[in-house]
Amino acid sequence: MTERVSEPMAAIPERSVRTWPGWLGLLTSLALMAVSVWLFVLGLPMDVWEDPSPLLLVVSGLLFAASIVLLNGLFVVQPNQAEVVVLFGRYLGSVKTDGWYFVNPLTTKRKISLRVHNFTSPQLKVNDANGNPIEIAAVVVWRVVDTARAVFSVEDYNAFVGVQSETAIRHLASQYPYDDGLNEGEPSLRGSAEEVARALQRELQERLEMAGIEVIEARISHLAYSPEIAGAMLQRQQAAAIIAARQKIVEGAVSMVEMALDMLDQQQKVELSPERKADLVSNLLVVLTSDRAAQPTLPMGR
Question: pLDDT tens for residues 162-195?
């Protein structure tokens, strides 16, 4: 007997709820309160020999209670805020325009901020694409764009952003090396900041879409090797920088030697034998590529 896997529930689409102006609800409540007071006065006996009217007193109490209940339907929406309205567990709609409103007083309402939020992740210790342990952290700029998904699709959308952001950062760090190393042009966390930021934003948007959240920007705020390998990696970077500098020096020295030989051949002031040319090339390369000042040696002929 095969087990039947239940399908995930479809996301509740956001919609607008029907509202009335807040002043209308307040006036209605005040009118009921005034009528209840008037009926209460009518229900009281005019003198001590008359009995009070139970019917008028009961109606007065009911109207007064209704006027108090109506006040629960009043609410204010601040700029860049929204109000999610639910009636007996059923989603009626959302109000995203600022103002003073009145809805069914039996509904429950939840405020949702539509302002831009920042999430700064803690420093996470992960392995990059080469397996090197690194420390990484990021800043995520986000906001709620779908209030229905934010309230009903996830338990707590603020905590959901935090968990999914850390998961996306860990996954991103495993896709790129810390540095390009010997493979020049390869995307890396340190050398391809813009590309890495776009990749992080795309992955976060995919993860947070179900919660009705828009990722405005996501960037790495901290990036470093773990302390246990930081010294070794620093030596490797220094060695790579020395090799690159030496390559530039050798390229420049060779071009200068070629230029010197071409000028001697063009001016034809000195004729050099192949042995003398080899000695000249060797001496010039030693002088140009050495990291110390040259010490001239004068030959002593007999």
Answer: 999 999 999 998 888 887 655 566 788 888 889 9
CA distance 29 to 32: 5
The upper half-sphere exposure of residue 66, i.e. CA atoms within 13 Å in the direction of its Cβ, equals 16
How far apart (Å, rounded) are the C-alpha atoms in residues 279 and 238?
33
Strands 99-102 and 20-21: antiparallel
How far apart (Å, rounded) are the C-alpha atoms in residues 216 and 218?
7
pTM of full prediction above 0.70: no
CATH topology of domain 117-225: Tetrahydropterin Synthase; Chain A (3.30.479)
Beta bridge partners of 76: 100
Q: How is the chain split into domains, by residue range? A: 20-113, 117-225, 233-288
Q: Which of 264, 126, 136, 142 is nearest to 211 (CA)?
A: 142
Token pair 């302002």: residue: 115
What number of CA atoms fall less than 13 Å from residue 284's CA on the CB side?
18
Model confidence at 302, pLDDT cuts 50, 70, 90, reads: very low
